[in-house]
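Q: I'm writing a short methods note and want an example of a predicted protein-small molecule complex. Could you take the sequence and the SMILES for zinc ion and return the bound structure as tokens? Please keep the output block clean; save any remarks for afterwards.
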Amino acid sequence: MAWSIDRGAVPGQGHPGSDAKDNILGVANRDIANRGRTGHMFIGHFAPAFVAAAAYSRGPRLATYFIAAQLVDWAFFTLALFGIEEMRITPGATAMNPLDLYFMPYTHSLAGSAIWAVAFGIIVAIWKRDQLGGLVAALVVLSHWALDWVVHRPDLTMAGGEETYGLGLWNYPAIAMPLEIGITLAAFAYYMKRSRGPIGQPLIMIFILLLLQAVNWFGPEPVEAGALLYLQALLAFALATVLAGWTARNRNFPKRGGLAAPSA
Ligand SMILES: [Zn+2]
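A: Understood, no commentary inside the block.
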């Protein structure tokens, strides 16, 4: 954690696995009570991206929406590299993963997400000369917070501060895991149904996304939060985005009204 700022105000922070000591030292009960299944949703965030690219097929393509869908996680792991936002590993805290995301006000507060959404929407609107595309991209950015709110334990805020939110569906993996895979595959199927082209690229894309998700869920747990872990996450997002771009280049959307493609 060489990059991280030591926020020494709260005893025990930055010392993974020191729950018992935290308790004795009188850390706020909220901090202890909130320990539960947590971490970052990965594949489920791409569901709104598939839907957006398929529903507004004349707008930005899939890769733009893939970036939108994970924009605040791109930002989180980048800020974490510099110790501006923080997470830690709390071994044994959860059955599914030990990530404790305890300081992310700039990316995972609702206000912070909204600012990222507006900024990204404006960039897309100008870059693509497409105001509706900008709006849809902004909504996809915001969808990240909404999905996180459903699955995260309470580690999200409205605008930073003490009050935290999250329905904690990850406490019920038997529901959360099939649900996350289910919405992703349904959205992918919708994208495939609306578009035409070879099947190979999209199948390779969805296979690799599922593989990354499987590693996330069933692979070895990270033992330490730090640059290596953050770079791994950013690399996974980059790989997903490249695959989305590659897929989208090989998919076409038939014109509305059933007109044949010009090349036919
Ligand atoms: Zn997130």
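A: Remarks, as requested: The longest helix spans residues 227-249. Residues 33-250 form one domain.
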